[in-house]
Specification:
single chain; alpha/beta; six-stranded parallel sheet; three-stranded parallel sheet; 11 strands
Length: 283
């Protein structure tokens, strides 16, 4: 028997139902949650992500603003737009879709967003709050991963969790969130000589490196929880993750859990962005 699937679509739907109810109550009190999304350039994948975020806002009763600019848009003008949105009381969350064109400094853009409206959770202030255990807005993808793990019923206290990947957007905040849940955490990356040495004893493995078949069947133990953050294409052009899905699912056995790609982490990322926007509006 194979591992159980963690259905990110179903979990996302359930969480969005609660978000929509809370948003309606807030709107009835005269404070409708508002999210502003800025897209600079014509990257096709970014356009899809932005469209999905705006649609999700509408589905949950949020006010949303989409600002699109061509790839030559000036950095100073972008920072001016962010400043205006920072001052807009109808906007509770601001995100600038990454990547931005090369002439724009992404760090400067992220830091221009008011901390209270940093619903991506990428700023130095937000990262520092997470690091020190203070309240704040958490990066949406790791936040969603925590909800997926929680849905399995596994208590993380005392468990060994391995994070493969050390990016500022997923790997590092993922490790910190797991630590906050009292797991013992190992962070692996491209410089780790033997991934399997660390993952074979892990109760939870989160893979976020953007490379197919990073985690294989011989690298997991039966009963583990595997969260696949990767988004790649296989030889047939179909979406796949960082995990050798079929083989790993079989190796985990019926007591294990694994997220599919697509349908696992992806739906949760936008959902937790909405949760952050709602949190900012309720503050």
């Amino acid at each position: 028997m194979t591992a159980q699937l963690i259905d990110g679509v179903a979990l996302s739907k359930a969480i969005r139902g609660d978000i929509a109810a809370r948003a309606a109550a807030l709107a009835a009190a005269g404070r409708r949650p508002g999210l502003a999304v800025i897209l600079v350039g014509d990257d096709p994948a970014s356009a899809v992500y932005v469209r999905n975020k705006v649609k999700a806002c509408g589905d949950c009763g949020f006010h949303s603003v989409l600002e699109r600019y061509d790839a030559t848009f000036d950095e100073a003008a972008l920072l001016a737009r962010i400043a205006a949105l920072n001052a807009d009381p109808a906007i509770h969350g601001i995100l600038v879709q990454m990547p931005v064109p090369r002439h724009i400094d992404p760090h400067r853009v992220i830091e221009a967003i008011a901390t209270a409206k940093d619903v991506d959770g990428f700023s130095v202030h937000s990262a520092g709050a997470l690091m020190t255990g203070l309240p704040g807005l958490r990066p949406a993808t790791p936040y969603g991963c925590m909800k997926l793990i929680e849905s399995t019923g596994m208590a993380l206290k005392g468990r060994h969790a391995v994070v493969i990947g050390r990016s500022n957007t997923v790997g590092k905040p993922m490790a910190l969130l797991l630590l906050q849940a009292h797991a013992t955490v190992t962070v692996c990356h491209s410089g780790t000589p033997d991934l399997g040495l660390h993952t074979r004893g892990a109760d939870v493995v989160v893979v976020a490196v953007g490379r197919r078949n990073t985690l294989t069947a011989d690298m997991v133990k039966p009963g583990a929880v595997i969260i696949d953050v990767g988004m790649n294409r296989n030889d047939e052009g179909k979406l796949c993750g960082d995990v050798d899905f079929a083989a790993v699912r079989a190796a985990l056995g019926p007591a294990g859990f694994i997220t599919p790609v697509p349908g696992g982490v992806g739906p949760m990322t936008i959902t937790m962005l909405l949760a952050n926007t709602l949190q900012a509006a309720e503050a």
